[in-house]
Structure formats: C-alpha cells, structure tokens
Amino acid sequence: MQAVEVGRGLDALFKPRSIAIFGASDDVSKIGGRPLQFLQKYGYAGCIYPINRKAGRVQSLTAYANLADLPEAPELAVVAVPPAGVLEAVQACAQRGVKAVVILSAGFSEMGEEGSRLQMQIGDVARATGMRIVGPNCLGAVGVPDRSIATFSVALEGAFPDTGTVGIVSQSGNLGSFTLRLAGERGLGISRMLTTGNECDVDIADAVASLAVDPGTSVILCCMETCRDGAKLRQAMALAREAGKPLVVLKVGVSEAGSEAAASHTGALACSDAVFDAVLREGGAVRVPSIEQLLEVGHALSVVGPARLPTGHRVAVLTASGGFGVLLADAASAQGLALPKLRAETQQRILSIVPFAAPSNPVDMTAQVSSRPEVLAQVLDAVARDDSCDALILQSASAFHVPRLRDVYLGALAQVRKDHPSRLIVLCARAPQDVRVQLTAMGFPVVEGIDAACATLSALMRHGAGRAIGASSPTAAAIECAPLAPEAFTTEASAKGVLAEAGLPVPLEVIVGSRDEALAAGRRLSFPLVLKIVSPDIPHKTEVGGVFVGVRSEAQLAEEYDSLLARVAQNAPQARITGVLVAQMVQGGVELILGTTKDPVFGPMVMVGLGGIFAEILKDVALQPAPVDEAQATAMLRSLKAFPLLDGARGRPKADLQAAAQAIVALSRFAVRHAQSVAEIDINPLVVLDQGRGAYALDALLVPAPPAEKAKP
Amino acid sequence: MQAVEVGRGLDALFKPRSIAIFGASDDVSKIGGRPLQFLQKYGYAGCIYPINRKAGRVQSLTAYANLADLPEAPELAVVAVPPAGVLEAVQACAQRGVKAVVILSAGFSEMGEEGSRLQMQIGDVARATGMRIVGPNCLGAVGVPDRSIATFSVALEGAFPDTGTVGIVSQSGNLGSFTLRLAGERGLGISRMLTTGNECDVDIADAVASLAVDPGTSVILCCMETCRDGAKLRQAMALAREAGKPLVVLKVGVSEAGSEAAASHTGALACSDAVFDAVLREGGAVRVPSIEQLLEVGHALSVVGPARLPTGHRVAVLTASGGFGVLLADAASAQGLALPKLRAETQQRILSIVPFAAPSNPVDMTAQVSSRPEVLAQVLDAVARDDSCDALILQSASAFHVPRLRDVYLGALAQVRKDHPSRLIVLCARAPQDVRVQLTAMGFPVVEGIDAACATLSALMRHGAGRAIGASSPTAAAIECAPLAPEAFTTEASAKGVLAEAGLPVPLEVIVGSRDEALAAGRRLSFPLVLKIVSPDIPHKTEVGGVFVGVRSEAQLAEEYDSLLARVAQNAPQARITGVLVAQMVQGGVELILGTTKDPVFGPMVMVGLGGIFAEILKDVALQPAPVDEAQATAMLRSLKAFPLLDGARGRPKADLQAAAQAIVALSRFAVRHAQSVAEIDINPLVVLDQGRGAYALDALLVPAPPAEKAKP
C-alpha cells in the first residue's frame, strides 16, 4: 500500500505558501525563537503565523493564541512546544487541514517507553489523516530557493546557503546540520535540507524520494543511521536512479561499536552493515566513508554532471613535482584506481615538450611548467588524447595562488575543456574561492587533499560504472507459495528434497528402510556411496556415528548398513529413525558454503563463501539481496578473495563456476518464494566439481520462521 | 666507518654565523634571489655575502665576485648557479673551509647520465674533504630560531614559521616545502627544515639524525621516498629513539605505481614497501599515510609530550550528539581502536548527571551539555576516572564557536586537566585559532576531522605501545662465518644439513647409497618413512617420480627403493644420483612456509606465512628484518590473519607455537651469519605439530648470492 506513496506530500516542507510556528518565542536562543528569526532574517516571502498562548506580538509579528485563530490554514506548521503539548498541536493541525508538520521538540522515543507511546500516537495522526509529520526530535527542513526555514540549526546562524542543486537529507539532526554548514564553507549550492529525527511518519526513504522528484535537485547527499522500512528505501533509491540523480550515502554504524550506538540512538534494529552495503550497492547508491567525502563527492557530481562520468577506473596523474606524483600514485592505488603507463606516442609527445619530464604515469612535468606557459596546455592535450586512461588528475599545491601561474593554468584548462569537452579532469589543488568558482564553472571539480581527490575520483568512477551496468533486474515480487510442509524442516533429506525440486542440484540419493532396500538402491546408484542416518531427532549425524563415507561394494554396503544402525542405536537410543540415506558419493572439487538469512528490514539475503576457514576465520563471504540472477551470482563468486581457488590457481583445474552460480540463483529464488515460512537455509558444503562436471549440495538445513512471523499477512 | 658519523657536521646548516650565496640575484623570482630576500626580510642576524660575477651590490648588500674575496670563510654556502658552475663553486668552498654547502641548482642525476657523473664528482668533494653538501636539486634548509634560510621555498613567501619544537625533513623538496606551509597554517611551531634532494652527500638518515641531536627539536616529521643506506637510516632512527623524540614518517611509493614513480624520480632502487614498513616498525618510527596525518600526529605529539602517551588502545568517546557518537565509533574502530563499555559505576554516575544520556561508550551527553554548564565537567571527570579506557576523545562541532559554550568547555577541560593531569584527551573539534592555542597550552591536541582525530589518536597509541616495549634487541652485528661450501647449495639434503646444524629442526633422515643401507636406515628410524631422490641435477623431485611417501614396512622399503631409482633413471637418465634420502615421515600438523630474502638496502629479512594458498593467494605473510628473537617471531606468527589455524580454531588442537617461533629465530640468525654467501632461503613446508610435539622443516632450498656480491669486502 505504501509502495506508491514514498515521499508523498512533502513539497509543503520546502515551498509552503504559509508557515505557522507553535511555541513561537521572542527568545532567539529557544527552538521556538530561532525559526521565526531565520524566516524574517533571510526573507521568506510567504505568510508567517507565530502561535503563542499569550498572543500579542512575537518578534514584531502578530501572534495567535491558537491555530484556530489564524486567518487561513497554514501549509506548514513548525511545532516547538514541550512534549506534552505536541499531540494536541498535531491534532489541531490535522483538523485545520495543514499539509505538513515539523516537530522540532525532543522528549519522545529517545526518552524511553512513555515517550515512545506518545510518539506513536502522534504518528497515528499522520497515518489516519494523510497529513505528513517530520520528527519529532529533529532539525527539520529547509527549502533554500523559497527560503522556507523550519529548523533551529546553528548552520544558519552565520549565513543562508546559496541556492544550488545539492540536496541534503539526514536522520541525525546534528549530522544533517553539520553537513549543511560544511557545504556552505565548501561553496556548494543547496536545494533542500531535511532531517527526519525519530521518524514517527516521514522517514529517510521519504526524504530521499522528496529530493528524487524535486526538479531543483541534481545530487542527493544522505546521512543514514538505520532503516525502518527496507521496501520503501529501495523504492526511494529506484526513484533517484530513474531520475538520473546520484544518491551519495554516508551510512554510519559500520563498526560493531558504531552499530550498537546507532541502535541505542535511533531505537531501531541494529542492521548488519554488510546487508546495508549490499542493499545500497544494489540500489545504485554511491557509498562514502565520511562527512568530508560526502561533501567532496557531492561537489564533484554537481560539477561534473552525468555525461562526463567515466565507466573505467584508469587515471592519468599530472604534476609539476615528482614527490607529489608518487604521493598521488599511492593514494590513487589505495582507492582502487589503476595508473596504466601512457601510450608510447603520448610519452614521446610529452618528452618532445619537456625533455626531462617523467612521461609514463604519474607524469612529472617538472618545474618547466612554471617557466614555460605553453607546457601545461600541450601536456594536458597529449594526455587527454590518450585513451589508455579514463580520467585525469591535475595536481598543484600552489599554482592557483600565484597570479602569473594561475593565469597559465586557467588558460590551459580552458583550452583542454574546449578540445576535450567530455574528458573528466579532477583538480587536486588549493585555490582561492574566486578561482574555484571559475574552475567549477568549466566543469572541473576542485579537491584540496591528495587522498580526498583520489577517493572522490574513485567514487565518481564507481558511480559511472554502476550507471553503465544499469539498474539490476528489478527484485522479483515475493510470490509466496503455499507454506512448506513442516516435514521439510525435519531432516537433511527432506530439506534437500524440497531444494532439489527448486532446482538446487543434489547427489543421486534415496532413503531406504531396510538392508534389502539399501542393496537395491546400491545397484541403481553407482559406487562409491555414502550412508547417512535419517532422523528428526539427530541434528549432528556424525557425532552419533550416523555417517559412513566410501562404500565401495555391495558386500560392504550390507555390512556398513548394519553397523551404522547399530552405532546410532547405541549412541542415540531415543532417536526416531526414519531411514537411511544412500547417496552417490561426490569426490574432489572445491567446497563452498551457501546460505540465506532473512534480514528483518530488507528480507532474504543470499550468502556464499569458500568452506572451512575462509568463511569462518577470514570472513571472506559475499552477500547480496535475494533473488540474484546468474550474472550477479557469478559476480558474488568473483568478489571472494579466495576466488582464485575456483579459477585454476596453483595448477588446479578450473571449477564449474556456472553450476555454482546456478545453484546460488536457485537457492536465492527459493528463499524469496518461501520468505514467510523459512528463516534461514544452510548448504554446507556445496561441492563444485571441475568445469562441466557440476556442483552438488551435500548437506542442507532449513530453519523455519518463528510462528509469529508466519502468521503475518 | 660511516657508522658513527650519521648526521655529523650539520649544525652549520641551521645556525651558521655567516652565509654566502653563489648566484645571488636582484631578481627575487630567481632561486639565487629568493634566499637573499628571505634572509633580510626575516632578520637573519649573521653576515650575508652575496657572490655574483658582477660584484657591486645585490639587493642592497655588498656583493663579491669570488668566494676568495670574502673577508672571512662563511660557515654556510648556498649554491644557486647553473649546473655547469656548481662543481667549481663547491671546490672553492672546500678550499676556503666552508662547513656546509646547500646546492639549490637542479640539472644533475634527474637529467640523465651526464648529470649523474657531475653529481658524483660533487659528492666526491664532500667525501674527500669532510665538508657537508646538501642537494643538489633540493629545497635546502631552514633554521627557524636563528632565521637561517637556505631555501627558495614558496612556503616562506607569506610569513616565516613560528619557532617551535617540530622539525621537518624530506627528500622531495616540494613535499618538504608543502609540509612547512601546512605546518604554518596549522599553527605548528617549527625548529628546523631540511630537504635532501638528490643526496650527493647528506641523505635522509643524516637529516633525521641532525634533528635527533638538536636540543630545540622534540618531534621529527619525515617525508621519505627511498633509502640509499639502510644501516645509516637504522642508526638515525636509533638516535631519535634514544633521544626520546618521536619520528613520524610519511613514506611515499607504497603502491606499485608509486614505487615505480619514486624509483624513476629519485634514481634509487625501488624498495619493497613491506621491507620499509618492517624496518620503520623495528626502528620505532610512527608511520602515517598522508601529509595531513603527518601534521596532525606531529601536532598531537608536540602538544601531548611523552608522559601522557597511553600504551593501550581503548578509547572512550564523548559527544553531545548521538549521530556524531556513531560516526566516531565507526572511525575509531576503523583505526583499530577499541571502545569498551564503561564500567557500571561510571555509567550510573553519568546517568545520575544526565538521566537520558547514552552512558555506555560512545557517551552521548545529549543537548543537556548546552543548557547545564556543570554537566560536561562532571561527565568528563566520571569517564577520566574509569580505567577501562586508555584515552578520551571529546567531540564538538560548534561549541568552541559559541562564546557561552566555549567558556563552559574551556572551564571543564581546565578542571579535568587539573584533576587528571596524565590523562590523554584528544579534542575532535573546530575552534578559532585563539581557543586552539588555549587548548594546546593545556596539553589537549585539537583535530578537526573525525577520521583524522581517530587516526591521530591511533598513531599516538601505537607510538606509546612501541615505546613501552622499548627498543628491539639491537640487531646483532653480522658475524660472517666462513662462506658456506658450494655443496650446501646443491641438494635438499645438503641444505637441510647446514640448517640443522644452525638449529633448524629437521626430521630424522639419512642418505643411503644402496638398498641394504636403506634397510639398515629403516631399522634405525621408525616407520612410516619417506624416500626422496638426492641429485644436484633434479630440482623438482616429484616431477621425475623421485619421492615416495608412506613406507610402512621393511618389505615395502626394499620394493619402493628399487622402483624409485627405476622411475628416476627412466625420467631423468642424465641426472647424477648422489643417493636416496630415507626420512622419518612427519604426519599431521599445520604447514608454514618460512624463508629469508636479502634486501639490497636493508639486508636479510625473514618471512613466514601459512602454506598453500594463504601466502600465495591471500598474501598473508609477516616480514621482519633478521635476526629476530623468540618474542618477535611469535609476534610475526600472531600477526597472520590465518593465525587462528595455529591457535586451535574450529576445534583443532593448538599448534606448537614455541617450536615454530624457535625455527624462525634459528633461520633468521643463519641468514644474518651467512648474508654474504646466501641470497635466499626457502623452507616449504615447515610442519608445525600439536603443542609440545615440535616443528620440522620437510624441505629446504638455499640460493647462493651472485658471485659479484660474494667478492665484496
């Protein structure tokens, strides 16, 4: 139901024709005084209605004792009264037909049980009436073009942001406010800012969506701590992607300590960062590790535009200093960028311009750049012509501060922009603000730090590559089959049975009830065989002697059948024995572990890793939202550090990657179809044989979803 | 010989009583005009002697046509003439008794063969006369307290650095100059700056040493691209360590691309970064990844002083914002810091001060900090009392910019400094310059960025831990034994023979020449046995059928002895057969690969990793300069990602760590003793059995040093 409504009705937050302020105050240090001050100081053009029990005048405007007294229904209401009065204010708003409410007041779910209850009642008003509510405990909203200000953020104390196309959304008010302030210092133009706080109604997905549909926004910066509705977030990401707007995400709560702190801070479930990462990747978001990078990448994307985003990751570095060249080469490599040697003809051309240059990559143009103005333009042109690189970084620590050099650099850059309009060139440089404005107007992002410049370029390239691949195949709707019969969960054999039906390859095997049946089975299958006890009461078969591997003849089969049953009878006398599994033995190959889990927010996830210590000790696993297609499954396998083991490392034969990928696909689809009844699936091992010989699930475990969950509609 | 002379005679670079400038010019855009301008502008108190063919006056000072015309021998000479005139100037200096020369001119080894020859001749003057020469192609030296300026660095154009105790040395002139400029912007006080450029005489080790012995320097910042003399660098590091001065190193050329660029830029060998890292670690240097971190860590170390450096890595984070708390928790975790939960009594105390605080760690003091001044001091005190953390980070994005809050914060910090004088507290904050000065005067480092603050604290803690361990046992002098006999290099058996004598455990084994001898050997050893062909002509025994594993009886021994010889005779008919190795079979255990290499600059290095894919594919190896002691060897093993496999992971028995460590020690000592004749040793595998059962080298290969190297004195 919510599916089509993400971000609905939020325009009133950013361009309301009128704003009422509950708790309006003359004291500008109070949260009810600040928005009123900002609205007047920065010239909001709509009507402002202070609401204050005493009525009279507040900050020289006519104040009203009640919302009912206003001459019209305001489009937006800001609530800055003590917590006990918030519900009443919100109800009054709903009654009067207010479109959106921003609750700045704190004292709700962050204060314990009672606050949570009150917050729930407030959210119910939104759900019942369709009026949108932001907060409580948030830093509100700012619509920059319309100077609509529903916040008390200190970021607005010095100056109002310049209008631009970068939008900022954040769950944490402080992070959002700090981002806004840094954006101003960084010279970024802003379209909208929205912080969602405790999210009684409007959540981070709504916030992203409200920017995705805003014609004034071209880049979305998002600080996220948690997610309460995975489906909504996915829809919001899809909206941004369809609109061609990069979504840059700083997800905090990455570490264990951070994730616990985020859970305690937001009151939401602590999501696994690996799950978040997979979901963000799938949704085409550009993930960054710090606020600084959020701004740098936002700056660069707003300057570069989508047309100049490369899809490769090869960079040419140009400096006038060998030392800086080395530093940049290190920093670029650390960011996963490649520095290929430039083509021979390019190197020759560079040497013909500067005989003692280092022409390979990084290109050291030497101090000649300072003394011979033509050098820079010519070298830039030579490198820009070279298709062995996808982008250029031009570094200078001081050129833009020296008037003579500044003009040389600006002239050369104007020329290269004219001759190579679609080339991405990032400047790693310190420059005065006026020069930065000129450079960005020419479409060159300017980043000061060396690490920061390389990280920014890397993010641009990842985004470019992601765009080129296009949206991943839309997540298939979870077509819920009839719930699995409870028997499916009881034994390995039953689990493998239902999984085999779903297309997961398992060895030829049969359950037998007697020695004669075992011998008959042995005749149909081919030796060697494996015997395993089948019992709903024996979870760990090996521990009770319930497995025998390597039966090589009929005689041995008869003998081992009997002794297996005898061992189990002795070790687990109470266990109900359903039979004995006679299975063809799979020999050789590489062992994978394959599984699915159900994330409480984002639903079924599929996971694969190499067996043994790789997954357990080295944490070398790949995770992806289910279902996946064969290309995604193959990419998961290739992303493993131990992938070379599947790919013929150390003289091994190559493994049957296709069969492994198809098994992942089949399992992931099964997990989605049975999401309501299955909590978890473990395949350990999936043996992958040599190329062309297939892959087989040798053991399987289905864990049922808890009854409460099954009951959900 | 050079051993006792590192850094000798460099004081004249920083506090000369007189300075002559070859190529002194009126044109301040020239490298011969700039130093003269700086010396006068910034008030150097000694005598300045411009030298210029035209004599007369330069920049209003009396100029001289020749050095010989000067009324005295200057202590320092700056050479800024075209390359062709440099040798003559240097020779004149040596003749006149100048103590030190700085050659700013470029056009030497960076320009090819001819330049290299000229540079070598210049260096020969230093070696012949003892006069020290810096450069050529460098940005010279600055002695800040004495305003001695032998540089044309643009960093001095705006202002002269404040005098302080931070020294800067760099091979790259540009990186050194940029560091100096950033240091000024960052408010760091500087003692000395020295860039070494092409290093015809004074190298980076001399530069480090000159600061280690300078009473005015307390922290040394070093930008390094390469090292030409490993022994000298180690001595310089030891000098810094003995003087109790932290040495913070930005080593560039980490990546393959960067390392190649550094080699091309400096003309020196491209050193393996892993070797550099091991050498820096051993020498007690603090390695940082960027110029920004170089300055932050330099700032923090100069503010904190050695007494407040913690040895642990547990940090408590305090914020007034949940969002920032989460961000800091992530950043701290990413830097390897631990955020333990605070003690229950600490948490209770915090809750008694701020009822809705998040008291665990990160501590969210909530917005109460702004409205109730006593909160901060009380919470700081509660956390500072808690010994579950080794340091504190207090974060505030804006408090120091709001006068009322600034005073609250400064007051609380003054109190905690008084009550907890030895507590390390890092401020992650933005603050005006005057407030920063107050904070640093109280001993609080102030770092703006969140990642930067955590990285800085991590560097401080690593340095503290390193200091606590103390200097590693001084590298034993390489006592060269008589060169190994050539036979030692011919076969596995001969290699194992010499290594066993050196203390490396090998299985019981014997070389036999006949079936009877084999049977006799079999009777002495215990079954099962391994047979291996012994031949100087068969490097890969398995490939010719020259190995049999698992001989379990005398009868089988006789049979397999014959068929082994027959197989080898058929597959390698030309090979000379020295015998057959009969060895006790070592069963079970974990396989390590163990080896040594000889770095051209730093000498023998010892390396260990787990066998198979771990070392080869996952690059999971530990490297350390040889020799190592048992504690170091154990630390190497523990540093492996796959260490849990040796430590009882997944229900395995624990491996015999002590035996493995002792084998590493023995091999590392052997490598040092035979450094001149042995280039490389490979032990593959070293099988480590269960605890108490030992470790055994099952195969060994000695690679001889090339003859040229052996011939060296």
Automatic annotation (TrEMBL), chains A, B:
Keyword terms, alphabetized: ATP-binding, Ligase, Nucleotide-binding
Taxonomy, superkingdom: Bacteria
InterPro entries: Acyl-CoA_Synth/Transferase, ATP-grasp, ATP_grasp_subdomain_1, CoA-bd, Ligase_CoA_dom, NAD(P)-bd_dom_sf, Succ_CoA_lig_flav_dom, Succinyl-CoA_synth-like
Pfam families tied to this protein: ATP-grasp_5 (PF13549), CoA_binding_2 (PF13380), Ligase_CoA_2 (PF19045), Succ_CoA_lig (PF13607)
Domain ATP-grasp: 496-532
Protein name: Acyl-CoA synthetase (NDP forming)
SMART domains in UniProt: CoA_binding
